[in-house]
Amino acid sequence: MYDQPRANASATAMTFDRMLERVRYEGAYPTRERAAEAVHHVLAALGRQLTGDERVDLAQCLPVEAALTLTAQIPDTRHHTGWGFVKDLAARTGATPATARWDTGAVLATVARLAGPDLLARILRRLPDGYALLFGQAELRRPEPAAA
Q1: Nearest Cα to 129, choosing from 137, 143, 139?
Q2: Which string of DSSP letters, residue by residue, matches 72-116?
Q3: pLDDT at residue 148 greater than cutoff 80
Q4: Buried b / exposed e along 113-146 (16+ C-beta atoms within 10 A)
Q5: Model pTM?
Q6: Dihedral angle of Cα 92, 96, 101, 107, to the nearest 10 degrees
Q7: From CA 39, how far away is CA 56, in angstroms rounded?
Q8: What is the pLDDT of residues 85-101, one digit of tens each?
Q9: In what helix (H) or strand (E) does residue 123 lie, and over which residues does it extend?
Q10: Mean pLDDT over the full length of the chain
């Protein structure tokens, strides 16, 4: 069972070191340590929001260290909008909302590349409004249900 190939494996596997370098570049962080801190904080916050198959499939696309951070979190019963996600991250880390938003964008842009477009679309359908922008995607309005 464990030796079967992963169905959602990213086209180019990325090590955790390469992921940190990518996040460091995206966020213009001065050190790898600062990039690692952002990765762990943002993935932990995402792990509290994401559930189901999308959570499992995303973990499979990430380097092991990043996947462990994501899956070590118990999903929260309160699902935040994108802005609520940023505010919660800021409160938990002691950062300003601007810094939390910056960190989120740097990390989730890299996560979006690793996930690929199909999985990212599934993740965005599972999460409340406001997350597409955090992943560096256009925020498309969901169709309003017809009034009865």
Answers
A1: 139
A2: TSPPPSSPP-HHHHHHHHHHHHT--HHHHHHHHHHHHHHHHHHHH
A3: no
A4: bbbeeebbebbbebbeebbbbbbbbeeeeeeeee
A5: 0.85
A6: -60
A7: 18
A8: 999 999 999 999 999 99
A9: helix 97-126
A10: 89
